[in-house]
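Consortium newsletter contribution from the modelling node. Members have asked for a concrete example of what our holo predictions look like. Here is one, prepared for the adenosine-5'-triphosphate complex that several groups have been discussing at recent meetings.
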Amino acid sequence: MEDNKEEIISKNFIEQEIDKDLSEGVYNHVQTRFPPEPNGYLHIGHAKSILLNYGLAKKYGGKFNLRFDDTNPTKEKTEFVESIIEDVKWLGAEFDDRLYFASNYFQEMYDCAVLLIRKGKAFVCDLTADEIREYRGDFKTPGKESPYRNRSVEENLKLFEEMKDGKYKDGEKVLRARIDMSSPNINMRDPVIYRVARMTHHNTGDTWCIYPMYDFAHPIEDAIEHITHSICTLEFEDHRPLYDWVVKECEFENPPHQIEFAKLYLTNVVTGKRYIKKLVEDNIVDGWEDPRLVSIAALRRRGYTPESLRMFVDLVGVSKANSSVDYAMLEYCIREDLKLKRPRMMAILDPIKLVIDNYPEDTTEYLNVANNLENPELGERKVPFGKELYIEREDFMEEPIKKYFRLFPGNEVRLMNAYFVTCTGCEKDENGNVTVVHCTYDPETKSGSGFEGRKVKGTIHWVAASTAQEVECRLYENIVDEEKGKLNEDGSLNLNPNSLTVLKNCYVEPSFEGARAYDSYQFVRNGFFCIDCKDSTPEHLVFNRIVSLKSSFKIGK
Ligand code: ATP
Ligand code: MG
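And here is the predicted structure:
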């Protein structure tokens, strides 16, 4: 009993509604769907919808469909169909062979419209779009009935057929549901359900010159596929009475139940298609998959994993109230996901040479290094070590500031996984910039040798110069900063000028042979990095920083 109670409390409101439907015998199974319009790339908000719908189907032992809501040919492109399929699969939302296109239901939709006409529930209307709007009224004013509202069934059937047969110009006539012009819900005031529009459809070509409106088409699509729970975002709440009206009047058995949840909004990101389009056109970002964007393709390119997005969606949960989620939470999830899974490598992003003056010339020593100290299952690798190394420029200071424990003349530090070294000085160029740091090492202090003689306060990482591979690293910051204001006064985006930093001569250990696109690593002290899928080649590796190691975001207490 105790356990049971807890389980109920932890369920979200959608699960509670599903439980109720199942216990009352409204349905004996669960079937959900993700219904994208193929008019753009999917973004993090869609990922939430996909994982939510898929997750519910899985939880209840039901099925999940992927259905393209392709009833509006003007904006749709086949290119998007393919990218959407790829994204849904990548997220792990399995739809098996249940890939559907709403356009394949055009005949059923037409038949439903005819049924409504026969029942006196739909009529052909000759008012113009402007007139229809005017007659509709508003929140304060009830609507006015169309003068065509009382056409006979026969006349409506004939006119609707003529609409289908191409007898009328675009916009000349529409089919409207005949519901209630005085309804307080404007969606119920005889909404348009079919329009004449000569548009070539990517799937049905020129077969149709009339197309159904979303509010009519969507419930029929759900009903045809025996969807039980049609989960959508809050803006459709006011459309639910129409949804219910359509499935009822079209006489579907066991009609679906629409449930709304709040859209996911993230801080400090740009999701609006209009803005992204402009960023792409102005060459500010590298296409829709630029790693600073939050399209699913961009997140994948940046190095996010399906697991991290699933964790994120679970943490965010579902709600009935719109709110924004901190971008840092997404970063928290990818850190958590990669922390134990990926090897920790040494990479130098801002190199300076370190020479160990008392180390033998032309000698390469191979040191055993654990791939991930917290996860012994990842094993060990051999890392070359020699007289000349690269270290981070910031790990040396000729005149140390207070509490600086790294290299400065006279100070001893540990070279991670290797020896203790004592800094002896540095060389400078004519401008006074440090070019080389010198030190001596103590052979007794080799890591793993059991040496416990002295303590040092600083440990720095390094890469052996003779075997180092030069690579490119790209560091990212958010493209906009909400605290500084997302938009300028003229409505344009207030862009962060530092959103991309390209570091061309970074050095990594020679352990990246065979690294492939999307492979990710922890670079000790520098963050998590992923091989760029677009620009990286085996000869010239390009890494995207997924996320730094530190975060201000804390989960729980
Ligand atoms: P956008 O305007 O951002 O492209 P959309 O709603 O037009 O979004 P659709 O292709 O119509 O995109 O949406 C497919 C599904 O994804 C719908 O069920 C929609 O409710 C859901 N969805 C879209 N944006 C979000 C979001 N930010 N959070 C959660 N679900 C979303
Ligand atoms: Mg849409």
